[in-house]
């Protein structure tokens, strides 16, 4: 992720609408909110793919690391398109990379990643990614990525 | 607003996407977030109509009162459609009424209002609604409403 | 609540710190955030009093109505002191009234209420306020309030 | 930052109260919120030190990169103590490192950083850190850090 990506670098996209309150005193979307876009894009995809049931899934993905680099501002009422790809799938963990695109822009205005570790919902101990879940992040692997 | 409204009771609609973080520990969109939907719907309309320039408008609308009644839950990743109408336009103030609709539902899952008072951006003293702004809330007046 | 209250009008107080992101483009705490202060003050008191266990309480309080009137701005990094009192206790519901005080101010900068209806956690049907919970809102009744 | 820090690793602390809405569906503070704690701790210190005036400072710090690693959960109504230190000061940029501590815990529950680049408020072009501002991050340099 050493250079700014374009839409072509991502496997799937999610549309997110900005909110009045996303803008901070400097009149652009606050840096914190970008992580809410990351969370929203990935979890919405997991839910729509049927591999996350918030109430009942015995294994859930906890976030253990996140990062974001900011290239250009977003401003309410912009539309955001979150591009998602998977960089690495381990025994218990998935590394998602996300690029945020403003309206029709082709270059990402921000890029980052977050790492999900699957844990038992009750004990919060790491567990293998459930078999029926694994195919979802696999479908988002970008060329050159490694699934262990 | 003594009964639950339907989409037919609103003059214009804004689409808003829910976010992972909108859900609270009870796994539905938290009551606070509904007000963010209100703010977002009205201000997005004002900006798109060209009557609010966040950086430069000499008169801005400050919120002096808000209210919401909650009928049925919203849950991420639901889509929200915010219906907006204007109930009253005074010399300096506008009362917006908002109904929130979940996905394809015809009955509002929540309804509320907020009152904008136009103030001078620098002094924060009330000022008359600017002439070029007034036509916007007028366009959202519902039948039977009173514009002073 | 037709006039602006003072600290003397409230039964108990909770300290809340403001956040950078609370300020919106107009450089004051956004109207939405006040409701987060309401939620925080009441639920923190319920948890600390031992009458709300987020994970396990069989009956939980759902918010069915909220309102706020705004008198004077709050601005990050202000400290907020939320005064809480109970105006009415019904069979299943409690009406909390909250006044927000800025730093050392004696007059409320905002006042509002929210109504909790106790429901069965699983069915979400209204249930009587649990006996061991009821004493908590009773302790916050202001003079002249009615507990049914 | 390859190991979990303790309070002794930080130069100054800021107290932050958690909010009801910080907890997400998994009943712990959502990963996004940690960045709001970072923003709040650093900006509050800048304002209280008199080196940031939100309305008037001609040079402002824009966030160009943030990161967080999560070790243990925070849960409303926990208190958070944000430890802050400065790892590097460049011509225009400051790298802040933040450790979050839960209640009386001595080990950080999360650690991260964010990088401020000072820009001209109007042009948003990078500018040297103003002379009267520079002494503030310098006061937070940890032993072994490099100020260019």
Summary tags:
homotetramer, 18% helix, six-stranded mixed beta sheet, alpha+beta, 148 residues, 2 helices, Thiol Ester Dehydrase, Chain A
Descriptive notes:
4 copies of one chain form a homotetramer. By secondary structure, chain A is α+β, with helices and mostly antiparallel strands. Chain A has a single domain (7-143), classed as Hotdog Thioesterase (Thiol Ester Dehydrase, Chain A, Roll), CATH 3.10.129. Helix content of chain A is 18%, strand content 39%. The first copy, chain A, contains 2 helices and 6 strands, in the order βαββββαβ. In chain A, strands 1, 2, 3, 4, 5 and 6 form a 6-stranded mixed β-sheet that branches. The A-B interface holds A 15-21, 23, 27, 36-37, 39-40, 43-44, 47-48, 54-55, 76-77 and B 15-21, 23, 27, 36-37, 39-40, 43-44, 47-48, 54-55, 76-77. β2 of chain A pairs antiparallel with β2 (59-70) of chain D.
Strand-helix topology:
The structure is a homotetramer of 148-residue chains.
Chain A: E1 12-17, H1 31-48, E2 59-70, E3 79-89, E4 93-102, E5 110-120, H2 131-138, E6 141-147
Parallel strand pairs in A: 3-6
Antiparallel strand pairs in A: 1-3, 2-5, 3-4, 4-5
Residues in helices of chain A, as a percent range = 10-25%
- Overall pLDDT of chain A: 94
Q: What series of H and E elements makes up the topology of chain A?
A: EHEEEEHE
CATH topology (level 3) name of chain A = Thiol Ester Dehydrase, Chain A
